[in-house]
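Subject: for your reference before the review

Hello V.,

The reviewers asked for a structural picture of the protein, and I figured it would be easier to keep everything in one thread rather than splitting it across files. Below is the amino acid sequence we used in the manuscript, unchanged from the supplementary table.
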Amino acid sequence: TMIKKITITILSLLIFISASTSYACNFRILNFGDSAEKLNVVSIFPSVPDQFKGQEIITPLDLICENEKKLFGSNLAFFFVEDKLVQIRIIRVNMGDKNLMNFASKIYGPIKIPENIRLEDWTGVHSWKNDKEYINYVSHIEKKEQFSDKIEVLQLISKKYQDIFIKYNLEKEKWIDSQN
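And here is what came back from the structure prediction:
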């Protein structure tokens, strides 16, 4: 019957959609507020808390998101203040593409670029927010004499823990200024 065919078609589509989304990159392997001790990843650099109780742990994104081949070569940074996760960043340097921009757009919504600028030449910041976090995508090109450094960053900052993150940054900035 027609109803049976429609039901089977809908169920098939739902199974296909859920199977395809399970391959998406789930880089959020910790919740905001979690301790660094909960993070079970290979760190690129030795990481210990600094004098302001901040600690950054950086790992290759490839180890977390094996199926997201377009993001290979990116790093995933977890930033803790007072042993609470306050920020997550995906960092992509000199890859010659805008794959992180495309990834961010799929998750958080489109990034509007002026029509007269080519996608690969666009630099700037695009922001989103939801109930729990502020999300920023940053594209920057640092032009040198012989070459250009290109960097893409997708940054998530916890709304709940933003006060300790801001306090950390202000204390660190004050200390840096005092060293000059």
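For the response letter, the relevant points are probably these. The CA atoms of residues 23 and 160 lie 29 Å apart. The helical segments are 2-21, 61-64, 99-108, 162-178.

Happy to draft the paragraph if you're swamped.

O.
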